[in-house]
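Below sits the subject:
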Amino acid sequence: MAEFDFESLIEDIRDFPKPGVVFKDITPLMADPEGFAATVKALAEPYRDMGVTKVIGAEARGFMMGAPVAIELGAGFVPARKPGKLPRQTASQEYDLEYGTAELHIHSDAIGPDDKVLLIDDLIATGGTMVAQVKLVERLGAELVGIAGVLELEFFEPRAVLAKVTDKPVHSLVKVG
């Protein structure tokens, strides 16, 4: 696959959601058919021959990236959701936010010992949601094969955070220093 210029379709939105923040908007990348297809293929590529059986994506933008990557890999998709959003028994994991905590849930029977799991999100920033998902994968006995995202905010040092809970590879398409 030829190299695609993902950054050209990611827009900086200054002072969103609050003053001083530069939001990286990937919706133009997703709206571009060639860009979206290239994104899905590039996220899936490093894991194509690893036998991935399930892709987990966290609410909500992880759904948008994770589901098509699952299709690309011939795998199932598992949503990681906020509390109270899934109808059956769930496994949950709390994680830290800048001011407080949050929680992710997946159905308890969504993954198990026979599964090889890939975690996908639009953004890898502080690493908190990915750490929570890594812990859920471990608790339910599945094998984690990797972590991937469209954007990685390197200044938050998410790889150092993730290295505390897993030695699996982290793949990102665009790194912001």
Notes: The radius of gyration is 16 Å. The chain is about 25% helix and 35% strand. The chain has one domain: 50-176.
